[in-house]
Design a protein that fits this description.
It is built from 1 helix and 12 strands, in the order αββββββββββββ. The protein is an alpha+beta fold. A hairpin with a 2-residue loop joins strand 1 and strand 2.
């Protein structure tokens, strides 16, 4: 057998061996990936849904806020690092001007308008927060519309009408005389006082029963966040 033939067979043998190793490696990687899938799915399945909390503050100890929730139960809310504290103050319809960025929880009406349950005015630093129109589960059959006031406020028998424009659309919001109008301001820990009303829109419940949040809305001077 010539040297050339031997060299050819050795090269061929090397190629076959390399190919087989590639196939084995691929099968092992696929098996490992498939083995990870149930773990990943289980991990996601274990993530608890966010919890909405409302009530009054009882005790503040650093980043731990003990509260009495709306149902009368006590709970501990841990403020995450760099948590945002929003102070909520009473406002009036006169504070809403052209271009004011606001939000309104409302109930859709037969004529396509939205009857406000409450209106909140955002500070300029929060312009764009939650912009758009969407369902709002905390209010039965409710919606939430966040956008900029456009045009003049029109007075009517059932209340004043504000046109709110957002990217992709607009809604007419009827504000009844009894609908609370609130203004958001960037607050601080000094706003977390016993007796103050609060709302946490999305808290995470921990295994020990406490809650953690990166944002809390707290009323000033008797204001009640919605």
């Amino acid at each position: 057998m010539g040297a050339g033939t031997i060299h050819h067979r050795l090269s061929r043998s090397h190629e076959v061996g390399a190919y087989q190793m590639q196939q084995i490696t691929r099968r092992r990687l696929c098996t490992a990936a498939l083995g990870l899938l149930p773990v990943t799915s289980a991990t996601w399945a274990q993530q608890p849904p966010p919890v909405r909390l409302r009530g009054t503050i009882e005790v503040v100890d650093g980043d731990v806020v003990t509260v009495k929730a709306a149902g009368g139960t006590d709970a501990k809310v841990m403020l995450a690092e760099k948590a945002v504290i929003i102070a909520v103050v009473k406002a009036t319809l006169a504070e809403i001007k052209e271009g004011t960025f606001l939000g309104s929880a409302a109930i859709p009406q037969a004529d396509g308008t939205q009857k406000a349950v409450e209106v909140h005015i955002f500070p300029e630093e929060m312009r764009g927060t939650g912009e758009g129109h969407r369902p709002y589960p905390p209010v039965a059959n409710g919606t939430m519309t966040n956008g900029s006031a456009s045009g003049a406020t029109v007075s009517g028998i059932e209340g004043s009408t504000i046109t709110v424009k957002y990217t992709g659309g607009e809604k007419k919001i009827i504000v009844p005389p009894n609908a609370p109008i609130l203004r958001y301001e960037i607050g601080g820990k000094a706003d977390l006082k016993p007796g103050a009303h609060f709302t946490v829109l999305a808290a995470t419940k921990k295994p020990d029963g406490t809650f953690e949040t990166s944002r809390i809305n707290v009323g000033r001077d008797g204001a009640v966040p919605q």
